[in-house]
Design goal:
Layout lengths: L2 H19 L3 E7 L7 E2 L5 E2 L1 H13 L2 E7 L1 H9 L5 E7 L2 H4 L3 E2 L4 E3 L1 E6 L7 H7 L2 E4 L3 H10 L6 E4 L2 H9 L5 E5 H8 L7 E8 L6 E7 L4 H16 L2 H9 L6
Parallel strand pairs: 1-4, 1-5, 9-10, 9-11
Antiparallel strand pairs: 2-3, 5-13, 6-13, 7-13, 8-11, 8-12
Helix pairs in contact: 1-9, 2-9
């Protein structure tokens, strides 16, 4: 079967299944402030890669979506409790998390990076972690990795709740460097505020700090998970995924 025929079939499946099994009112969770994935522009509109992806999925499922903007740490518990139907927290799949929610097909791939002043002599990372304060976001793979790596020097950690707070802490000098998903620091580094800062060392893919990123779906809605997967496949096949990517990133996400 040709790619075009597969795409048409996928779209028909989405329309058919959404009409039969998916509720017409869907609550979607997105991180409250995480450029370029979700943020408020100068006109007061919520925009970003994840916002656009969710809106396109809702359009393809022919459902009305209500957006709920929450801190990262709140999204998985609310999806698990059924307070949100699906969410886009930029989350990697783990056995523990799979007990709490359904995971869609991957819709981008992540790495983590250290960010700090470009004139900082990075040298041996272990020595840097012992002498410099470092920021990371609570309840993330990055903070768990640092706590394990730093051992007795965890007093050097500055724990934040959002990407915005993480970056502001570094700019204000509360920490010298930070560890966070590479993509989430990109807009900052391209801005006027980010002048003088850059990536320190190579991006980290392994050690739990990179991998396939998924949307999460409430565990009692396998029907919703299935049609979101079909919608994602069709978006990738017809170029919509790439078009949304180009609005926010200068490189491929898949």
């Amino acid at each position: 079967m040709s790619k075009v025929k597969k795409l048409v079939l996928a779209l028909l499946v989405v329309v058919g299944m959404s009409g039969q099994g998916v509720a017409q009112d869907v609550k979607v969770g997105v991180t409250v402030d995480s450029r370029p994935f979700s943020y408020v522009d100068e006109k007061g509109n919520h925009i970003g890669f994840n916002v656009d992806m969710a809106r396109e999925i809702c359009a393809r499922l022919n459902v009305t979506c209500t957006f709920v903007f929450e801190e990262y740490s709140h999204l998985l518990p609310k999806v698990h409790a059924g307070e949100l139907d699906f969410a886009l927290p930029n989350m990697l799949k783990t056995p523990e998390r799979e007990k709490l929610a359904g995971f869609t097909k991957a819709y981008w791939r992540s790495t983590s990076s250290y960010v700090g002043p470009v004139d900082l002599s990075f040298g041996n990372v272990d020595k840097v972690l012992l002498r410099e304060k470092i920021c990371a976001i609570e309840k993330t793979k990055q903070i768990a990795y640092l706590r394990q790596k730093m051992g007795g020097a965890v007093h050097q950690l500055v724990v934040n709740t959002t990407t915005k707070e993480n970056l502001e802490s570094m700019v204000a000098g509360k920490c010298r460097i930070l560890l966070m998903p590479t993509m989430q620091s990109l807009s900052f580094l391209q801005s006027d505020e980010g002048r003088g800062f850059g990536y320190l060392g190579e991006p980290i893919f392994g050690k739990g700090l990179g991998g396939d990123v998924h949307m999460i779906v409430r565990p009692d809605r396998p029907d919703l998970l299935k049609v979101i997967d079909v919608a994602l496949e069709s978006m990738i096949a017809d170029g919509t995924h790439m078009a949304i990517t180009k609005k926010y990133f200068p490189f491929k996400m898949l």
